[in-house]
Amino acid sequence: MYWSKTFIPTLKELPQEAEIISHQLMLRAGLMRMLMAGAYSYLPLGFKVLSNIQRIIREEMNACGAAEVLLPALQPLELWQKTGRDKVLGEVMIKFIDRRGRKLSLGPTHEEVITDLVKNHISSYKQLPKILYQIQTKFRDEIRPRFGLIRACEFIMKDAYSFDKDEDGLDKNYRTIYDAYKKIFKRCGLDFLITEADPGMMGGNVSHEYMVPAKDGEDIVLVCPKCKSTRTYKEGEDERCPKCNLKAKKVNTIEVGHIFKLGTKYSSVLGANFLDTQGKLKPVIMGCYGIGVSRLISAIIEQNNDKDGIVWPREVAPYQVIVLPLDVTEQKIMQLARESYDDLRKMGIEVILDDRDERAGVKFKDADLLGIPLQLILGKESLESGNLELKLRHNQKKIIKKRADILKEIKEFTNV
User: Fold this and answer.
1) What is the side-by-side order of every strand in the sheet holding 74-76?
2) Domain count, the chain
3) pLDDT at residue 202 above 60?
4) Predicted pLDDT of residue 200
5) Which one-letter DSSP state was computed for residue 364?
């Protein structure tokens, strides 16, 4: 991709509406723009990061034997009334009546919908277990949308659901997803904590949250300085570790994943039953597993930035390499830039060429702001010496070598 052909509206100044670093950098680097409070447009760079996160999630979920579906965002309110969660969520649900007089909601989550689907197609223990997942837009009428994608009214979520014939099956699937989430968040370049949590409105008796430490995170986790056990902090709670009796450290975090053992909370109410080996009718035993997909972009930036901008982890970066010809009016420099760009594309590497007629200082600042892992810098020295300069964004290290050797360095770094 050439910079001139895509859409990257970078900003020099800090946006006044952005309260935290991830929101500031997403706006300054041209990843997204706000349409209204709680609703954002993803621009090309932001959409590429989002797509990379989704790819990682799909790869790990598919490796678990989960099957991807896509459920309707429009939901009949009647389903929610059967479980009573329409009252639990209250005004958070976006409700309306269509021209046919049907009471509907824009889906804030999909436990009721997936249970209704499965009850009509699974009737025997022989059809179990199953894990189904989707990546889809959710809608919640947040009383105070804030922090960009961290607390939005329209957001993208990965929700998965397991269906088992007994508790042993649920335990196995729960552990499988528990471990898959660790792989997902590590691949996204995140440090994270796992806490036992309150199931809340979801129900069930076992729940874990995946929390990303961040200076401006809304949630607080207590971490024991000795045994390192963690738990979600509740106001007024005893801050001492129940095991070590030491005062725990408070850590601000962003919740990026939450998993639940639902049991029969939804299946028993909605009639999702199956015949067991004895021919007895029993409710399916369920688990639920969520990841805040769009929120992950914010969490990644909160942990991966410096004074100059974003520092993307390799697997989620919008591009692996940015080619920076420092004088686009010099024909030989541009020829070298295009040849290098073409070589990288042939190697299967995601690359963008900054073909703007801008000063070198502007290009360097924008490249650092965007956080693309590798910067291939081409100037007059490149023509005179035959060497290319490669800058590593995460540590500012510079490598100067012949073109063939630089391409080998890039191939090794990007793991293509």
Assistant:
1) 74-76, 103-106, 94-97
2) 2
3) no
4) 60
5) H
Distance of CA 341 to the CA centre of its chain: 29
Among candidates 122, 159, 166, 138, which has minimal Cα distance to 286? 166
Q: What is the DSSP string of 286-297?
A: EEEEEEEHHHHH
> 3-state DSSP call for residue 235?
coil
Phi-psi region of 297 (alpha: psi -120 to 50; beta: other; left: phi over 0): alpha
Cα separation of 269 and 250, whole Å?
Answer: 39
**Pair (358, 284) in one structural domain:** no
Would you call 75 helix, strand, or coil by DSSP?
Answer: strand
Amino acid identity, residue 357? Answer: D
Cα 130 to Cα 11: distance, rounded to the nearest angstrom:
47
pLDDT digits (tens, 9 = 90+) for 259-281: 999 999 999 999 999 999 999 99
Q: Residue 295: inside a domain, yes or no?
A: yes
- For residue 345, the number of C-alpha atoms closer than 13 Å in the C-beta half-sphere is 12
Q: Examine the fold and report which residue of 306, 330, 353 is the final residue of a domain before the chain moves on.
A: 306
With a threshold of 0.85, does the pTM exceed it? yes
Count the helix, strand and coil residues of the chain and give each as a percent rounded to the nearest 5.
35, 30, 35
Instruction: Answer yes or no: do 271 and 346 share one domain.
Output: no
- Report percent pLDDT > 90 for the chain: 88
User: Which H or E run includes 243?
Assistant: none
d(CA 228, CA 92): 35
Tell me the average pLDDT across 1-19: 92
Residue 212, token pair as written in the block: 């990303």
Q: Give the pair of three-digit tokens for residue 184.
A: 């997902």
CB 139 within 8 A of CB 106: yes
What the block records as the tokens of 361 is: 């200082």
CA distance 334 to 339: 8
